[in-house]
Amino acid sequence: MNRFALVVLLAINFSPQSAVAQPAPVFSLTEAIAEAESKNPDIVAAQRAIDIDRARLQQAAQPPLQLQAGPSVGLDVPGGVGTVQTISAAVFQQFTASGSLPAARSVASAGIVIASALLQATRRDVQRRVINTYYALASSQAQVVAARQNVATGEELLRSAELRKRAGAVGQFEVLRANVELRRSQTDLLRAEAAERVESIRLSALIGRADNLRSQPVAVKIVPFPESDERSLFDRAAAIDPTVAQLRATVDQAEARARLAQAQRAPSIGINAGFQILRAPINGRTSFGPTAGLALTVPLFDYGTIKGAVREAQAASAYARAQLDSRIVQVRTEIAQAVADVQSARVRQSFTAASLQQAEESLRVAQFGYRQGALGTLDVLAARNALSNARADSDQALADLAASIARLQLNVGEPITQ
Length: 418
What we know:
CATH architecture of the domain at 3-9 and 25-61 and 104-262 and 328-412: Up-down Bundle
Structural class: alpha+beta
Helix content: 55-70%
Strand order of the largest sheet: 1-2-3-4
Order of helices and strands: HHHEEHHHHEEHH
Largest sheet: 4 strands, antiparallel
Strand content: 5-15%
Shape: elongated
Distance between the termini: 51 Å
CATH class of the domain at 3-9 and 25-61 and 104-262 and 328-412: Mainly Alpha
């Protein structure tokens, strides 16, 4: 190994770095979830759905008090005055059948519970997507950093090869090889930057931001998660699962609809009170005074509509119960998968951390071998490339581990503080 190559390597390793701009503040996962809570359009729409069901509960009341007024003309009894003109005004109140109003209120109240559960399900879905996209962005940013380091290494490799060629130490093949390596690194950088751009756009859309998050770094933070058996985790998850709450409320609503339909068989009562003026046109005589009335409405034959409504509600209740049983099994599966994901991610993170240490040691050995004349410049630069790739793999594994822990926290209801 000649002295010229040693000078080139020293220039590669110890060249002064340009001034680095002040880094942008890190955008944390907690901040991303908080922004999504207030701005995500899916969550906002789900919140409005609760207002609709609250308005339906307000409508579950007695029919409105009615005012009935107007003139009429009718024949008098035989031997009477011929015709009689009537002017009357009365208020009329119809009372629903016994049991129908409480059942209607139960239907509307269950609707509010269902809408609230849908809101929680929407929030959880948005939070899960934010978690996945946030750490995908963190991983892509790490890939961009590694790709840029590889490009810088490739540029240094090309400069070294060109200088050594002019010095007569190597031939044109080494220059061509360095150029190909640089082009490959530049292509990888373009792909990494494109992936970073896509993930930043996705995260911006999820949290309701109009601007792009590409220029703002995100952080990978591993929080300790206490070891628990799957049974206890499942119990916690099932107790807060919004879909379970929604299906239970659906069962209650279907049973209330059945009671409401059965209540239509009961009689209903209407009462009225008012004032009436009677006038006989043939002689101009009038009479006036208060009036009162009572009406009883009794269903006689419903042509199967009530029975059909009851059967429909009962079938809906059975269907919701079957869905509830299926959801319980699904929650158990999700918890088992989430625990397995955390365990697998921890193994991968440990493996990539060991690989990173090995890559760092390989670079130290390559540099030492170069100084002793046993290795060439390409060996040193290849070791640096391997170190960049190992660091990117380690960052990816850390992001996967953080995401798997956050998803498990979300399933069991623990606050996400990453």
